[in-house]
Every structure is written in structure tokens, then in C-alpha cells.
Amino acid sequence: MPAVLVSLAPCVVAVSGGVDSLLLAVVAGRTLGQDVIMAHAAGPSVPPEDSARVGETAAAEGWNLRLVTAGEMDDPNYVNNPVDRCFYCKSNLYGVLGGLAATAFAGRAATVVSGANADDLSDYRPGMEAAKRFGVRHPMLEAGMAKADVRAVARELGLPFADIPASPCLSSRIFTGTPVTAARLAAVAAAEARIRRETGFSLVRCRVEGCAMRVELAPDVLADAALLAAVAPVIAALNRDIPNQCPDITGVSLDPRGYQRGRAFTRT
Q1: Residue 166 confidence class, pLDDT cut points 50, 70, 90
Q2: In the chain, at which end, N or C, are there fewer CB atoms within 10 A of the end residue's CB?
Q3: Which of 130, 209, 220, 115 is nearest to 168 (CA)?
């Protein structure tokens, strides 16, 4: 990966706050020095803990960090939440980062790079098409790294985020076809944070379909009567409080099916 980064320098790294982009940013910062800028878009769809993690890592590593506004919430193609929502999200982001890359290095052409890895090729990723259109490069993918390699390198470097759970954007909790709004995203963030805080569960997804929010938990939680009893009052409180925060959501309940990756995404 360092060799790929050197060949692409100077670079603007898109840092979301997950393990992939954080590792890329750390390696880029240590490899390229002044020839790299880290960019983080802290919009409504970014989990607050991810933005906090970016800030903490930037301080620890001494990054040149730029906070940007991607503007996806002003794009009706994104807000309407079609099956290719991620294409519009990334198009907005990469458009902004492309502008930064064009001006940040005193006339030197810079490359926008992302934390995509080889595992991302096994799934439907419309954001990758946006990256292709905007000329974004993927150093870890080009170095042949998969997700397991990313975590292994992060552990080898002693980075504190090596084993953090997957952290997709909050819009991934909104079912395809249900509009993405700031109020829905804030409700999802608040509900997930409260469940984690009051139960200690690490795997929590609060999905919104229409006016309903359903809480997905790990299968081992659903199989344990004591754990279910512990989370029941939290969900009852959310059922009371979330509709006050976001009137578009009229109820919160436990999904008896448990966690399933990508359940809110409906590809037709």
C-alpha cells in the first residue's frame, strides 16, 4: 500500500471514520507527509462516533484534516433513497473532494483516494461506479488487501480502531424507498447510541421502513432470555421517546428475526 500511495501523491484521502479509511489515512500520513490531506464529511448520515474517531486520530497523527460538506442532503436523487442511493452520495462527496484536490497543492494535480478493499468487489456497490467516474483510486484494493488484511495491518501497527465493528452510514438503516431525512437519521443515531449505552451490546441496527423503526440485535442476544429482559425496557422507552423526536416514526419494536446485514437495502 505505501508504494501505491507514493505513486499517486499528492493525495486527498476520503476518511469516513471506519477501520478501512482510517488505516489508509494513517499509512498515507506516515508515508506522504506534507503531500496528503485528509478530508472528512461529517453530515447527518455519519455516525457521531465515527466523526469523533476521525478527530481523535487526526490529533494523534498530526494530520492536515479538512472538514467538508458533501451536500448530499440537498440532492433529491439521494434523499428519495433509490436502489443506487450510494451512487449519488459518493458523487456529491467526490465532486467536493475533486475540487479540493485541484486547488490544495499549489497547482500540483492530486489524487482522491478511498479505503475500498477487495471485499467490496463481492457486493453491489454503486458508490464504486461514482468513484470510477470521478477518477478516485483505491490503494488498498490495488495492493490486493481484503478486510481481514486491513484489520491485521491495523493490529500490527497498534492502532486502537483495528477491531471496531463495521460502521456503515446511517442512511443504510433506511429502507430503500423511504426518504432519507435529517430527522430520521438523527432518530436512528439516538436510538442506537441509547441501546449500546444502556445494554453494552455492540451490534445494534435500528432500521426504518415507512413509519416503523425495528431494532435488530445479534442472534445470541435473541437466544438469551436474560439479555432480552434487559433490553426490553430500553426499547419500550424508545417507543415512547422516538416519535416525539421524529414524528415520521410512529413506533419502535424489536425485530424477532435479529440482525441481517443489508436488510434495509432492497434491490429490484
Answers
A1: confident
A2: C
A3: 115
Q: State which residues form the domain around 82.
A: 2-156
Q: List for the chain the helix, strand, coil content (%; round to 5).
A: 50, 15, 35
The domain that holds 219 is classified in CATH as 3.30.70.2210
For the chain, the distance separating the N- and C-terminal CA atoms, rounded to the nearest angstrom, is 36
Q: State the Cα–Cα distance between residues 256 and 250, nearest whole angstrom.
A: 19
Count of domains in the chain? 2
CATH of the domain at 128: 3.40.50.620
Give the amino acid at 141: L
Judgement on whether residues 70 and 135 belong to the same structural domain of the protein:
yes
Give yes or no for residue 134 having a pLDDT over 60.
yes
Residues serving a catalytic function are 169
Distance CA 83, CA 60 (A): 38
Which residues make beta-bridge pairs with 112? 12
